[in-house]
Amino acid sequence: MSGEATVTMPNSDYNPAVHANLSNGVGFIEGEIVPISEAKIPILDWGFLHSDATYDVVHVWNNRFFRIEDHLDRFMNSMEKLNMAIDFDRGQIREILARCVKASGLKDAYVEMICTRGVPAANSRDPRRCKNRFYAFVVPFSWVATRQDQDRGVRLHISSVQRIAPQSVDPTIKNYHWLDLVRGQYDAYAEGADLAVLSDMHGNVVEGAGFNIFAVTGKTVVTPSKGVLKGITRKTAMELSEQIGLEVHERDVPAAELLSADEVFITSTAGGIMPIKFVNEQLIGNGLAENTVRLRELYWEAHQDPVLSQPV
Amino acid sequence: MSGEATVTMPNSDYNPAVHANLSNGVGFIEGEIVPISEAKIPILDWGFLHSDATYDVVHVWNNRFFRIEDHLDRFMNSMEKLNMAIDFDRGQIREILARCVKASGLKDAYVEMICTRGVPAANSRDPRRCKNRFYAFVVPFSWVATRQDQDRGVRLHISSVQRIAPQSVDPTIKNYHWLDLVRGQYDAYAEGADLAVLSDMHGNVVEGAGFNIFAVTGKTVVTPSKGVLKGITRKTAMELSEQIGLEVHERDVPAAELLSADEVFITSTAGGIMPIKFVNEQLIGNGLAENTVRLRELYWEAHQDPVLSQPV
User: Fold this and answer.
1) CA–CA dist B48, A43 (Å, integer)
2) ipTM of predicted assembly, 2 dp
């Protein structure tokens, strides 16, 4: 796991002027920073052919990483749980991500680090024989729901598609198994909604495509405890909720509880804390989402907090 | 879905001499046949980042495709179920695959066709806005268990990992969601076994990493009916079983039934019909697997049948 002398670190003198559209993003492939349009992975990598991969996404806002140590913690844990190891250590990963962001010139960015099983040995079907690979990319910051979407009012559909169960894939390992989430999204579009939240086999809501979910009723905030990624923005939302005097519970959340809640919001690195105005076409509470709006303000203020954010 | 005039078909005059290792395989990427070592896909393709993709694998044996029309049927159906469409029609896909095999010079080959969601529009998280992509590759034929493995005796481990449920991902859409299968494989290795078969939530066996499973007891053959890919080799094994006077049932197969069976075998395009000698370290039946051995003979003989196989 530790960085050997053979590790090639990206060149920090990479010259953006050479490439026209570097602000579209960059990739880190085989030890080099390249424009995102040239960032490619081998078709034989089992990270693609078996979705045998883990990843994490940290964001940069106003030239500062937000909670990068939490994301690195989770990424290192995910790799270990999948029996993966790479040539870069934690400090080198942090450094690579920073160099990629600098090369892109982006002030607000979506920064993804990836570890794949790698390309199998000839005629081998044994994952233990693969050399695991590290990739990364940086693209402009993106939103599950933009601020405009939020102001207009985001419509959530409770999908009957069941999220892949923890008995099959450990959801605390951030992974690319999204076919259920994509199917949920298509169902949501068919219902005139923007986003889908999936359920577990008992009819509790769990998570959506890249986001966790919360319901606020009175002074109580609930969020699903099982079958979900332990999101870093989820964690931030829980901390901020306690800060403003709300009581937070991680437990099963039946679908019906969303409909009767005063407020519903979602959390994601891609957009932070985002209010949901309609669930299954029903207006939630009085539609003002006062606690959520307060949490959203605090979330963006926290991006100046030197404990939670650091300059790239 | 139909082939427009803009479709670039691969050049059949591709010169293998230009590249040293073309017999390692070739890829079909953005309309061109390239050596497999140069076959790469964009890191941003949601086929990778969301495993939002479907695929199929047909094999070539002694310069003949085996059941290619069955594989094309399934591939076309899988794309439709995922709301995907590509610029190539069925005839063009067949032609591309043949040209790739010819370019590789391989007589026995593993031929994979892939459709991915594609690269998202800038700042979009909407899969409907993606242009779906078609890729293919050809590599030397590979085996879930080689003939040597089979002669030595393949050891199967019944895993407690649950295969991703049909309520989450439709298993009849051939897909890359393999993290459960990979975890099963690691458990199998830890138990000294070669392969893992996963279970459903009720304790029935379902499928393993790229294979279906069968048990033979007396004159009866059973194979799981639900939660599995409807394999083409599975179909062939069922047809051949009836041909030799066995009665075939598709139904739930409790794990215990494997242990008490006279014979257990697995089926895959990667290796055909392959006997299993040990399940959870227990010898199955008398270890001779006489029906399975007969089915395996018939399976390879069928590769000369002009109804089932055609020259590349």
Assistant:
1) 10
2) 0.94
